[in-house]
Every structure is written in C-alpha cells, then in structure tokens.
Amino acid sequence: MSKNYTPPNQSLFGQIFDSILILALVYASLMLPLLMKEDAKAEEPTVAAEVVVNTWESLGQNEVMQAQWVKLGHNPDSAAAIINNRFDYTIDPMMLLITILVVVGYFVVMLKVSDKQYREVIAEKFDN
Amino acid sequence: MGFWNILTYVAWGISAVLLAWMVVDAFMVSSQYDEAYLMSSREGAEDEVAHGIALDGEN
Amino acid sequence: MATATAANSNRRIAMLKVLNPFHIWALGVGIVLVGEFMGWNFTVGKGGAYASLIACWVIGLLYTCVAMIDSEVTSTVAAAGGQYTQAKHIIGPLMAFNVGLYLVMAYTMLCAADAWVVGYLMQTGAAVMGFADLDTRPFAILTVAFLAWLNYRGVFMTLTINLVITFLAFMALVVLFFAVDPFSQGVVLQHQGLLTDLPYGWIGVIASLQFGMWYYLGIEGTCQAAEEVRSAGRAIPLGTLGGMLTLLVAATITWFVASGLMPWQYLGQAVTPMYDAATLLGSSKLQLMLFVATAFAAIASANGCINDASRAWFSLARDRYIPVFFGAIHPSYRTPYRAIIFLVPIAISFAVTPLLDQVITFSILSGLLGYTFMTFNMLKFRKMWPLGSIHRGYIHPFHPLPAITLLVLCIATYFATFLGYGATLLSIMAFYIMASIWFVLQRYQFVKRADQFTMPWPRPKGY
C-alpha cells in the first residue's frame, strides 16, 4: 500500500484566516435573507388603512374568547390587528423545485464525496 | 441614578471582568504549559483514561 | 494505538469524567425546556391549537427516533464530538465536517436567542416595576459571559447548576398545571369555548411542524458529554431517553394549559405565553414563579448550549477540521477552554442584533440537517458493523423503522420550513454548501487521514 498521507502544518496566520473566513460566511448567510426581505417589502404596495369598525362578532370571537381577550388587555381593535394577520401558504412551484434540488443535491454530493474520502481513511487505517 | 441604571452598569462591569478573567487566564495557561501537552487529548482513549493511565502527574 | 508525541510520552491531558445520568438529563432537558416557556406557541399561530398538538406529538415521534438512534450510536462511539464523531466513523470526513458545523451553529445560535430572552425578561420586569426602556444588552451579554465563565471553570459545577435550575423550571410547569384545576373543564380552563377547527386546514398542520421542533430541539446534545460522563454507554441512553419522556410530558402539559386559557390567535404570537397564562389566572405569586422559571429555563438552555457548542468546536479542532489551536484542554479545569472563549463573541454578537428571527431559523434548520444525517448514519452503521460485530452499550428496537420514520418526518419539516422561511432556508443551504467547498478544496489537506478513525473497531463491511 502507498505511504500514509502527511498533512502540512498550518501557520498561525492560516489558522486565524480560516477562523475568520468561517465567521464571515455565517454572518453573510444570516444577512442575506434579511436583505432579500427588505427588497420584498419595498416592492409591496402599501395598503391604505381602511376604516373598519371591528366588533368581537365581526372577528368571529365567541363569548369565552372575548372574555380572555379582555383579560389579556385587548379591545376589538387591538385584537383585530392580531387576528387579521394571517399567514400566506400559497406555494410557488418553481421555488419549491429549486429548494428540493438544492437540499437533495447537497446531500447526494456530500454522501458521494464523503464516501470517497472515507475509503481513503479506511485504506490508510487498516492496510498499513 | 436610579436602581435600574446602577444595575445596568453593574451588569456591564461584571461581564467585562468575567470576560477579561477568561482571556487573561487563557494567556497564562499558554505561557506556563507546553502547547503539545495542552493539545494531547485523544478521542476514544476511554479505557486508558478510566484506568488512570492517561491522566497526568496526579496519580 | 498508544503512540504519543516524543516529548510527552507519558503525559496526556483529558477531560474529567465526573458526570452522572442526572447531569445528562439536565444537559438535554435544560437546553430544550425554554422552548416550552416560549417559542412552541408559534406552532399555534401557524396552524391553530389542534395543529400545535399534532405537531407536538408528531415531532415528539421524530425526536423519539432521534433519541433511540443516538443512544445506540453514542453508547458505542463515546466521544466529545457526539454526532460529529459518529459521522466521521460511519459516513466520512465531509459529512463529519458538516455535522460538526450543524452542531456548533445550532447551539451557538440557540445560546444567542436564550441570552436575548434573558435581556428581554429583565426589560419586561423593569417595565412592570415602573422603569421603561431598560437596555437589554448588558443583561444578554452578562448571561453569555457568566455562563461561559462557568463552563470554563469546569463541567461538573456547570451541569450541577443546570440540574437545579432545570428541575425548578420543570416543577413550575407542573405547579401551573395543577393551578388551573386541570380535571374540571369550564372552571379555569375553557377548551370548549376556545378550541376551533384547523384555521388553515391541513397545510397549517404541516407548517406548524417547523416550530414544533421547539418543543424538543437540543435533546440530542446529550452525547456531547460522552467524554466527561462516567460509563457513557449506560448514562447517555438513560439520560437521553429519560429527558425525552420529561419533555413529552412537559410539552403536553404546556399545550393543555395554554390552549385552555388563550384564544389561538393571541397564543400564536405571544412572546411569553406561560407568563401570560399565569397572568390570566390572576395570581401574582404564579406570575412571579413563571417569570423566574422562564428566566431559569433560558439560562439553563444557554448554559447547555455553550457546553455543547464548545465540545463540538473542540472536537473539530482536535482532528484539524478547523484550526488546531482550538483543540486545547485547560490543564486545571479540564475544559476545552479556547473553544469556549472563541464562541463567546459570536454568541454575543447574535444576541444583540435584530436578526433574532433568522438566528432561530438557522438554529432549527441546522438541527434538522443533523437529524437527516442520522437516518443514513443509522442505516450505514447497522450495515457496516452488524449487531454482534462490535460491542454496543444499547441496541434500539424495530430497526430500520425509526430511521425511516425519521427521514419521512424530516422531509415534512423541510417542507414546513420552506412554507415559512423559504428564503432563509436557501441562504442557510448556501452557507453549508460554501463551507463544504472550502473544506474539500482548502481545509482537508491539514487533516491526518487514518488518525480520524479512533474507535477500536474491525474494518467496516464493504470497505
């Protein structure tokens, strides 16, 4: 079998550089969606504040619910802001497809590369 | 200076002291001990550690 | 195997083996329990109260699979890196690097979120006592600084404190449960009046799975303590599975009390739902108790996270996956002290930024990627070293059912993350892909090939 692989020693500068690189990557990936969100927000047309009279009935709250809302310190208007804030679950098929490809591709490539590296480890460990 | 303002300063102060203590201690350790010794822990050294073989001078 | 450096042929440093199963329980439950005080209730916002209960149990099943699989592999691969070390021995270096990063990221981000919570609670408390706009930053920073110091000084005291405060926080939930007169409806609890049909239908149930992870996220961190526990093969399965049972009880109690007191729309956006529950009961004693318990839970969680993240970072360094400098152990306290110090500024910087939403999603998704890894890990582990070929401290039943169930549930949770945080999901994937490319092209050259494989196992089948 071939000789064992001997890694080079990393300089102090290299060690510091590598640590900073990982940190920079983390911060970048956290900021990215934030920037994307800001773009999306800027595009959204601002809806003119409609004057709606909110009552517990119009918000679909029964008596028990009303009592708890009041105890929590809300009136129909302040509760309406919470109740009417609904999630949008429409699916963009293109985005879904991209996401699936990214996640599946990530794992497939990783398993392939890992397997190749692993065979090298096992060969060195058990053959020499 | 109310209670909460003082508390805020105390929190800043204690944080600074604790962080500084750790950094100073880490430097002292680096200057007193051999780097190779500090790095000498091994994974999977279970049995030896359990039987005291791999522990340093104490035993 | 016992080759040592020439200069120190008989002096090796190691972490102290001082922990028992209770510490393991405290490490696992301590990290998670804050999720029952805040965060879990976003499941209610995503799909209604019933969706939250379904998520609680479905994700409970996911984590039961995680705990079973993890217990078996960890009882065999007992090393500080936990899942990272498992990946290194079973899948390969690149996967191991990624798993190590998942661990460090999941725990560091969670620690940051916990520290933020402590600051927020201080601000709320000050406001109640008549002082508005207290600066949250010094308290968030103090939390991280103090807990890092505690971790630096030794694992035994760190986890003993965690045991005490986690137990107290758990008892607060139990006291709250009995305070609402749980066995008679309509007196305090109003489930009939408050529970509604699924407001978004079944898609809401799927969407709620993402935050359903909050009920349990971090329980798998128990295996990071493998090098510091006495008889890891016994204590880790015991502590982990015991912790899982505790969490299932706590999660169900939490849901039951909160959903019987608050309309789902309110609950779905509340920051501190359990404190609100106590407020609704009109008892200032209960309010104070829940306030303190929430703070305890957040502190216990941050504490456990620093413990786990630093062990993972330390293990990566010990194998030179990251700069070897971080692989040092403190000569008197026997803790991975450089890893602990390195993670402090990161945790602090996330705790004081307004990125909390992203930070939490980063944490959850890193956890999820780690669970996905566990499925292949388990399947390959049984194939490469079949039962009987190596000593296993614990063998989980029904293989491969738990692994397959886990994979299916992971896929559902990815979909949930896509529904709620599609852009964040992609950017976090981009991070792991970039890091992987860097590892393969640049970093792996510094890694000693055969030295990574440290277990005294026979050659794996098929390799």
Overall mean pLDDT score of chain B?
Answer: 79
Give the terminus-to-terminus CA distance of chain C.
21 Å
Uncertain runs of chain C with pLDDT below 50, 5 residues or more?
1-9
Shape of chain B: elongated
Query: Biggest β-sheet of chain C, characterized?
Result: none
Q: How confident is the prediction overall: mean pLDDT of chain C?
A: 91
CATH class of chain C: Mainly Alpha
How many independent structural domains of chain B? 1
Structural class of chain B: mainly alpha
Order of helices and strands of chain B: HHH
Domains of chain C (count): 1
Short key terms for the protein model shown above:
heterotrimer; A: 128 residues; mainly alpha; 3 domains; 4 helices; 66% helix; elongated; B: 59 residues; 3 helices; 0% strand; disordered C terminus
Describe the protein.
The complex is a heterotrimer of chains A (128), B (59) and C (463). With 128 residues, chain A is mainly α. Chain A folds into 3 domains: 11-43; 54-86, no CATH class; 90-128. Chain A has helices at residues 12-43, 63-71, 76-83, 93-127. Chain B is an all-alpha fold and 59 residues long. Chain B has one domain (3-50). Chain B starts with a helix and ends in a 9-residue tail after the last helix. Chain C has helices spanning 21-37, 42-47, 49-76, 83-90, 93-128, 137-153, 155-179, 191-194, 202-212, 232-259, 264-267, 273-281, 284-318, 337-351, 356-384, 401-443. Classes of the chains: A mainly alpha (128), B mainly alpha (59), C mainly alpha (463). Chains in contact: A-C, B-C.
